[in-house]
């Protein structure tokens, strides 16, 4: 496996302000990373460093094995796709003209523009000026732009903002396809609804530092967040020692459990006769995100006090 | 296509789309024909005036309006793309900063050149067809000189606009600075020079003084067009220049120097611009 992106001890300071504390990040071919954090958490700085738009104050950045800020590595940009947040394209041009402009700069045939516009569902609006586009259509145009020339590395900042649920679904399918073709993807967001299934790893940032990094399973284990087990039925017998963590509902009971307790408690409950329904809530990405970022804010509070 | 041509072509298309080309051409044509036809209205006549009167009054009006149009056209060239986010995006594409900037300046330069040619060219055509006393052959050289120098003047101020555009981070600030640049070059400089002349009661080096006019591209533009009709009675600041014989070629060359300076400055500043 090749390392597409390699950040080693990378730091970034802007006029004395530490925007990014030492960060190590390795992305391999075909990996999908979710980069999460509040505004000012260091997401955009990380993305800009990978794109070679800014120079790291310390540490080394390698993209496709080269320092992206050097002019010799301009060739690697043919393999790069990027879409940042809140980009507004040239209003006076039509959607097709905008895409053709970017395609020309990347040395890509016009025929691919038609194909991509069709793929993102803008075929009917291709000849209309961008100023008549809705927010979702602009976002789709931006995505088409990022997908020009089958990039090997795709960096997307808030890619699903303004997309309706159907388009969001389409977008994730497209990401999954690209991943299969060996494309490395970085999805950058506050929290993306429904993104869990599609990312291999998550990187949660806060105040320029890494708060957590790893697969979602790993993060769940580390966070030790409780899961919720809802059991419906009558005459239920709550296991010993769980009474304090149980809420009795009209038609059953809701239990708060640790990961280790999951299987024994489920077996205990199912062994009883009266169970009619059972469902299990694992901590979601949103729960994990809240957990890790709250810890970050918590430290800050301690510092103040 | 090289990236420079792609950027320039897109910029030109934008100029056609948002009616810049049309507006500039119409303004120039109306200005030229109006001056040619009503130029002697003050003297109680209506009808086409002589070629020299037309060109000289055209030059003294165009000197106000061309810089203004050029600055308005290009002041948001870079800062506008920065505000809409496309600058960041373009810099992740396989083109370098100087290619992007050159492409944009080339595009705006083409808009200026095309509409100047269209506007003043059509005015020249109408004069040639309808003015009884003006022949084609006597018109050709002065009008060509006028159009070429007008295009150069436009390019110089487009380059000024880019110097402003690459050094600020807000569009509104760029607009303000553009206005100040216009005010300084078009109004303040001449007033200052006249002030010095009057204040010292003409006691300045008569040899040196006319060369001070070379410090302002708008004055060079006027000189180019006025010195062609050297027999004309000149008034104001331009009268000073009568003493010096600056050839049309050297005046044009100094316009080119005035073009090169801000272009290079914009390139240097853009390379340093932080994102």
TrEMBL record, chain A:
- Give the transmembrane ranges: none
Q: Which CDD domains match?
A: ABC_DR_subfamily_A
| A molecular function (GO) term | ATP binding
Annotated ABC transporter domain residues: 5-232
Q: Which SMART domains match?
A: AAA
- Entry superkingdom: Bacteria
**Pfam families, alphabetized:** ABC_tran (PF00005)
**Keyword annotations for this protein?**
ATP-binding, Nucleotide-binding, Transport
Which PROSITE patterns does the entry mention? ABC_TRANSPORTER_1, ABC_TRANSPORTER_2
Q: What is the protein name stated in its UniProt record?
A: Cu-processing system ATP-binding protein
From TrEMBL, chain B:
What keywords does the record list, in alphabetical order?
Membrane, Transmembrane, Transmembrane helix
Transmembrane annotation, as ranges: 20-43, 55-75, 105-131, 143-164, 176-199, 250-270
Give one Pfam family: ABC2_membrane_2
Q: Name one GO cellular component term.
A: plasma membrane
Q: Which domain of life is it from?
A: Bacteria
Q: Name one GO molecular function term.
A: ABC-type transporter activity
Which PANTHER family does this entry report, sorted A to Z? ABC TRANSPORTER PERMEASE, ABC TRANSPORTER PERMEASE PROTEIN NOSY-RELATED
Name listed for the protein in its UniProt record: Cu-processing system permease protein
- The scientific name of the source species is Neptunomonas antarctica
């Amino acid at each position: 496996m090749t390392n597409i992106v390699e950040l080693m001890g990378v730091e970034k300071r802007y006029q004395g302000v530490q925007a990014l504390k030492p960060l190590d990040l390795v992305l391999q071919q075909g990996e999908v990373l979710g980069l999460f954090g509040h505004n000012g958490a260091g997401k955009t700085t990380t993305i800009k460093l990978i794109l070679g738009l800014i120079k790291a104050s310390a540490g080394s950045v390698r993209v496709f094995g080269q320092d992206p800020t050097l002019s010799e590595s301009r060739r690697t940009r043919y393999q790069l796709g990027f879409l940042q947040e809140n980009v507004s394209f040239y209003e006076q041009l039509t959607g097709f003209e905008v895409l053709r402009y970017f395609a020309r700069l990347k040395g890509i045939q016009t025929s691919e523009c038609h194909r991509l516009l069709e793929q993102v569902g803008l075929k009917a609006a291709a000849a209309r000026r961008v100023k008549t586009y809705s927010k979702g259509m602009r976002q789709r145009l931006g995505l088409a732009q990022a997908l020009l020339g089958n990039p090997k590395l795709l960096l997307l900042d808030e890619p699903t903002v303004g997309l309706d649920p159907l388009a969001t679904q389409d977008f994730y399918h497209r990401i999954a396809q690209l991943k299969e073709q060996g494309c490395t993807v970085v999805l950058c967001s506050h929290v993306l609804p429904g993104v869990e299934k599609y990312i291999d790893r998550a990187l949660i940032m806060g105040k320029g530092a890494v708060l957590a990094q790893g697969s979602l399973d790993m993060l769940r284990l580390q966070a030790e967040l409780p899961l919720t087990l809802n059991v419906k039925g009558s005459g239920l017998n709550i296991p010993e020692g769980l009474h304090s963590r149980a809420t009795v509902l009209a038609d059953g009971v809701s239990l708060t459990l640790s990961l280790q307790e999951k299987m024994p408690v489920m077996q205990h409950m199912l062994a009883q006769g009266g169970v009619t329904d059972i469902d299990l809530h694992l901590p979601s990405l949103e729960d994990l995100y809240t957990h890790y970022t709250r810890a970050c804010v918590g430290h800050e509070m301690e510092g103040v006090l | 296509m090289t990236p420079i041509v792609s950027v320039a072509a897109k910029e030109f298309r934008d100029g056609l789309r948002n009616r810049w080309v049309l507006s500039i051409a119409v303004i120039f044509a109306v200005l030229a024909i109006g001056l040619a036809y009503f130029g002697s209205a003050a003297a109680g006549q209506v009808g086409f005036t002589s070629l020299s009167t037309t060109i000289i009054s055209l030059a003294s009006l165009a000197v106000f309006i061309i810089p203004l149009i050029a600055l308005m056209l290009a002041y948001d060239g870079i800062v506008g793309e920065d505000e809409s986010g496309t600058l960041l995006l373009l810099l992740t594409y396989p083109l370098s900063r100087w290619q992007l900037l050159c492409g944009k300046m080339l595009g705006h330069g083409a808009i200026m050149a095309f509409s100047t040619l269209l506007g003043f060219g059509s005015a020249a055509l109408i004069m040639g067809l309808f003015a009884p006393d003006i022949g084609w052959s006597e018109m050709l050289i002065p009008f060509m000189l006028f159009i070429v120098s007008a295009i150069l003047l436009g390019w110089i101020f487009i380059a000024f606009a880019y110097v402003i555009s690459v050094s600020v981070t807000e569009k509104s600030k760029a607009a303000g600075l553009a206005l100040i640049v216009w005010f300084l070059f078009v109004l303040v400089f001449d007033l200052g020079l006249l002030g010095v002349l009057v204040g010292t009661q003409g006691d300045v080096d008569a040899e040196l003084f006319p060369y001070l006019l070379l410090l302002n591209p708008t004055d060079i533009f006027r000189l180019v067009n006025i010195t062609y009709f050297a027999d004309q009675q000149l008034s104001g600041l331009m009268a000073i220049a009568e003493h010096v014989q600056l050839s049309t070629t050297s005046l044009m060359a100094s316009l080119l120097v005035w073009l090169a300076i801000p272009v290079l400055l914009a390139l240097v500043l853009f390379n340093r611009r932080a994102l």
